Amino acid sequence: MSWLETSIMARKGLARGEMRSTHSMTEADQGKYHYVYGPYADPVLSVDPGTVLSVETHDAFEGKITSESDKPSEILNFPYLNPQNGPINVNGAQKGDCLAVYIKDIHPRGPQPAGTTCLIPEFGGLVGTGNTALLNPPLPERVKKLNVDPVTGIKWSERITLPYEPFIGTIGTSPEIEAISSLQPDYYGGNMDLPDVGVGAVVYLPVNVA
Asked: How far apart are CA 155 and CA 126, in angstroms?
């Protein structure tokens, strides 16, 4: 028995002890992904509190970078990055409530190499931008594709294997009136990129719209 099953979330927050339902939302179910957080898109799914939900997500590049010879600056359509699932309506949630989301598990999907990391001109924390000038010359554009295995880890090279510690980079609730890029973090969550938001974490988010 996990700590969650005996926690206050299970006793009060998770459907108040009622039997929890399970839903799966595939890529086909999602249809159109979104690039902003806001109240203007209709929910693709409504669930009760305590629902166990499995969701098929995209990576930040929507799967468009498939080779190390790809040029992200030519392939990607800025600022349409970080595609988001949803919106998912939680029945009974009211403005002013606190929504608790428990991350039960995270699995990679898609063909290998499933992982992508890259340097993109004028984008990210490792290259100079208009807002973050660096003293060193701009780093060259580069893509690295990585095999991701939950058991053996992430193979960086023949000598280096990184531990498999997945987390959800972007998760949040709708702002009350704004439509804010999914590249931004703010009071509603968003693009927090926190390694803490991994398996076993509970994320507490504000409910801003009924």
From this structure: 21
